[in-house]
Amino acid sequence: MKLILKLLLSSLMLLAGIMAVSGLGPGSVVINEVELNPSGEVSEWVELYNSGEDSVNIGRWSVSIEDTLPSSGKWIGVIPIIPRGASIQAGGFYVVEGDNRWVHGNNGTIVLRTDSWAEVDKTHPLSDEEGNDFSWSRYPNGLDTDQRADWVFIKSTPGAENSLELVSEP
């Protein structure tokens, strides 16, 4: 029995090592920026960021925007599955778009899952009633302490570094 347990544990550790080296595991991919209420006819979108040192294969992963507060009726919008073979380079970004018919700006919890439905990252409930060019962003990029303080509401930068640069009005 002990031999079987040792073999099983050794196999699992080897598999985890292979996944980490080959970019098959979740690595350091986080939800980095979220636009819940864009202006005009633009769709909601979620930006992923790889803060790790290796490329990560995110093919067939999924992102959902969920409103699980009892007063809202447990609404869920699933962004189309990320295409097979998609990856995020170390320090890179990947933006996925939702559906502009969702009209969902309040109490959205965003969840990132692998192709086996394992949860990789999840936000606190976020709200955006403004319909402007601002989004919820991790600052600095990839900061993930599982605290609300990881997030700031700043000018949207889909697919690029989040910046606290002040925006002046014309």
Question: Would you kindly provide a brief summary of this structure?
Answer:
The protein is α+β, with helices and mostly antiparallel strands and 170 residues long. It contains 1 helix and 11 strands, in the order αβββββββββββ.
Describe this structure in words.
This protein has 170 residues and is an alpha+beta fold. It has a single domain (28-155), classed as Lamin Tail domain (Immunoglobulin-like). The protein has one helix and eleven strands. It has one helix spanning 2-22; strands at 29-35, 45-50, 56-57, 62-67, 75-79, 87-88, 93-97, 109-113, 119-122, 134-138, 151-155. The strands form three sheets. It has a five-stranded antiparallel beta sheet with strand order 7-2-1-10-11, with no helix packed on it. It has a four-stranded antiparallel beta sheet with strand order 5-4-8-9, with no helix packed on it. A hairpin with a 5-residue loop joins strand 8 (109-113) and strand 9. The longest helix is centred in the first third of the chain and has 21 residues, at 2-22.
Strand adjacency order, main sheet: 7-2-1-10-11
Name of the CATH architecture: Sandwich
Which structural class best describes the helix and strand composition? alpha+beta
**Secondary-structure element order, as H and E?**
HEEEEEEEEEEE
Q: What is the count of helical runs?
A: 1
Q: Terminal Cα separation, in Å?
A: 73 Å
Rg over CA atoms:
18 Å
What is the number of E strands? 11
